[in-house]
Structure formats: structure tokens, C-alpha cells
Amino acid sequence: MTAAAAHRSGRTAVPPGVVARVVLGAVLVVNLLIVELLFFTSGGGKNSVLTVAKFFGLHVALIMMLQLTLVARLPWLDRRIGMDRLTSWHRWVGFSLLWTVVLHATFIVVGYATLDGKPVGRTFLSLAAVPASLLGMCAAAIIIAMATVSVRYIRRRLRYETWHALHMLMYLALLLGLVHQFLEGTTFTASALSTAYWWALWAFVVVSLIVGRIVVPLRRNAYHQLRVSAVVPESDNVVSVHVTGRHLDRLPARAGQFFIWRFPGHNHWTRANPFSLSAAPDGRTLRLTAKAVGDTSTGLRHLPVGTRVFAEGPYGAFTTLHQVKDATLLIAGGVGVTPIRALLEESTGSTVVLYRVQTAADAVLLPELQALAQSRGAQLHVLTGRTGAGTPPNTPFAPDDLLALVPDITDRDVYVCGPPAMTTAVLKTLRTLKVPRAQIHAEKFSLA
């Protein structure tokens, strides 16, 4: 029995993604209730304004813990929710952190100004002369700066490597914030139990981050010893890279997932790209297929055989783990066909594949798709032409047109991967056709 078939036979009533969301939400709510209880039983600040400042300070710490957990790349969460959603949640939680930090700092300054009867400006300078307060101010300044560069307008104008380097300063903010809490915190010093709870919670978050982001990738790469085994041009601007290594049958990768790939010695360490597997893992090799859209992807064509590979992953929830129906619809656009091709290789039930490209010549891996579709009894439709062109207009993903291609679409799991505009259009149509949300699977393969 294949891995896909084994999963289908053991399919659970509650989708794994729902279970993960419930578990994550429950853990958050329980800890939030504990923090609120400890706050209201540990006494207030020196005046009512400082009590409010203390309240916001505690929630700054709790929000920061949540942010770190979301990007710790914990395998259990990532396989069920997906890095793209976890990263998106991390971003929006980050803006909550920003405003909570601003409120905490504002109430601190105003509270001490009220307490000492001094102007706000002079109070701010006085607090900056206190080491513990200065550490908190520095942490707050870094958080505000990082939130600013993460605003979509600014973020889109920065290279990923630049933005990522700046974003690493958040770890400095974390360190400064922890020292600030240790020196200033009073809520969790009321009892040994509350102190143990608070620092155990921090320890869990920090250890999870270190294990997920550092220990696991280093251990896997040391164990598997990945290297380039072949480089195969698929077209003028698309290339496949085959990777081999030791004990790949023990690498927990699935069709539809992606890795963050680095090629030390060929590219600089900061040049990392998320490329999904373009073939289902077979325990012997891994394959990525990429279109030349930047320096790193363009340079893949010139990778020497034997080049060392450092791969972080596998990541992503774009897998049959989340399939709830026996039948599937796989929709690909452009080079987004790579995870779709891998999923088709793993499919066993009734499958329909829609491949959207400008022209048939743009259909990457088309011979493989045709061979796989024939061997699995799947229907393959290559949808060409410019959207909106012709009479009637060419609109393959309009509700009526999509329903004509796949009349039983509401009885299928739908996997969508392609350019953002196409993916958005397909998802809108699926909602119009009332395809149940649990049957819709779409994932954006990017680092930020």
C-alpha cells in the first residue's frame, strides 16, 4: 500500500488543520487566562496608570511568545497549517505587538510623570537613565522599526535578503526584552509557582525556536548529506535539479511540500529559495523544478553535479494529509505545476488536472503529466490562451466554465497552485460554486 493509500484508509472525521487550529487556540487561551489571573491577584502598580502599563507589558511578552511559536517551524504545526498561513498570522500578530508595545511605553512614561509630578519629556529622559528601562526602550525601538519595514508598501521595495537581515534584529529585541522583564517584572515574583510558570513558558518557546530553526535543519543535512546528482533543462527558462543523499527514505517529505534550498559554494548563503518538490519523494532522490526569475533560480542551470545542498524542510500543508474526498481536482498555473505534478504522481482516486498556460509551449513538464494522467486514468486539460480574449471571452476559471469542465467539483478536493492572480480568481470561483472550505487547498510558496 502506498503512503497516499494508507492515509486515505486512515482518514479521520476532523481535518488535521482543524485539529491544529483548535490545539493552538486552546493553548493560547489557557495561557492568556493564567496570565490574567496572575495579573489581577498580584497587585497593581504604583498608581492606576502604571497598573494599566503593567497590564500591557504582560501582553507584550505573551504576544511575542505567540509570534515566535508561529515561526518556530514546528513540524506538527507546519504539516497541518502550513508555513504560508503561519507566516501570515505571524505578520498580523506583529502589528498587534507594535501597538501593545506603544501603549505599554506610553502608559509607563505618563504614569511616572503623574507619580513624580514632572513633565512627560523629562520623565522619559529620567527613565532612559535607568538600565532596566533603557533596555526596554531599546527593545521597543527595534520592534517599532521592524514593524515599519514590514509594512507592505516598504516591504515590497526591499530585497528579501535585506529585509531578512533587518528582521533578525527582532532576536536582539527578544534578548533585551527578556532582561528587561527579569529586572522589572513583579507579576511573576509573588510566588515560586508563578515564577516557575512564566520562565518555563519562555523556555519552551525559545527552545522550540532553536530546535525548529537550527537544530533540526543542521541534524537532517548532516545525516542525509545532500548533493546535486543531475541538472536537466526543461525549457529555455526552466530547469530541474535532482538531489540525492543518504537515507532519503527516512526524510519525512510528501508530495506537495517544499524545501528552502541553498547551494553552498555555488551561491552565497543568503541566497535561499523555496522550491516545491516536482516529483513525489521515492526514498532515493528529490527533484525541484524552477523558472528563471531571479539570480538564484537563473543560476541553477549552471550547478555542477556534486554540488553540496543545504535544504530546510520539508514544509507545507499542501498534501493529501488534508484530503477529505476520494476524488481530486488539481489546478496549476505556469511553474506552479511542480507540486501539482507531484500530487498527481501520488493520486489514486478519480483525478482531474487543469493546467493553465499562455501557450502549449509554456506547459512545463507536460509530457510527464500526460504519462502520469494516462497511467492513473486521470483527465488532463491544458487551458491555453489569453484570459478575456476572443468571443466569447476566454475565462476558464469563471464559475460556469469551471463547472462545465468539472461538473462534480463540489465532490472533489481542490488543490490550487499558480500565480497570485490566478489563485485568487480560482478561490473566488470555488466560493461561488459553494465548494466546502475543507475541500479547498491552496498554498503560497514564499519566504515572506
Please characterize this protein's 3D structure.
The protein is of the alpha/beta class and 448 residues long. It folds into three domains: 218 residues, no CATH class; 91 residues, Translation factors (Elongation Factor Tu (Ef-tu), domain 3, Beta Barrel); 122 residues, Nucleotide-binding domain of ferredoxin-NADP reductase (FNR) module (Rossmann fold). It has 16 helices and eleven strands. The strands form three sheets. Strands 9-8-7-10-11 form a five-stranded parallel β-sheet, sandwiched between helices. Strands 1-2-5 form a three-stranded antiparallel β-sheet, with no helix packed on it. It is elongated.
Mean pLDDT: 88
Please give the alpha-carbon distance between the first and last residues: 37 Å
Helix content: 40-55%
Broad shape: elongated
Structural class: alpha/beta
Q: Main sheet?
A: 5 strands, parallel
Strand order of the largest sheet: 9-8-7-10-11
Brief account:
Helices cover 52% and strands 14% of the residues.
Note the topology:
Layout lengths: L2 H7 L6 H26 L6 H23 L4 H7 L1 H34 L3 H9 L2 H19 L2 H4 L4 H8 L1 H16 L7 H33 L2 E7 L4 E7 L13 E5 L10 E4 L8 E7 L3 H5 L10 E6 L11 E7 L3 H10 L4 E6 L9 H11 L2 E5 L15 H7 L6 E6 L2 H13 L7 E3 L6
Parallel strand pairs: 7-8, 7-10, 8-9, 10-11
Antiparallel strand pairs: 1-2, 2-5, 3-4, 3-6
Helix pairs in contact: 2-3, 2-4, 3-5, 3-11, 5-6, 5-7, 7-10
Which features would summarize this protein structure in a list?
448 residues, alpha/beta, Elongation Factor Tu (Ef-tu), domain 3, Rossmann fold, 3-stranded antiparallel beta sheet, 16 helices, 52% helix, disordered N terminus, 2Fe-2S, FAD
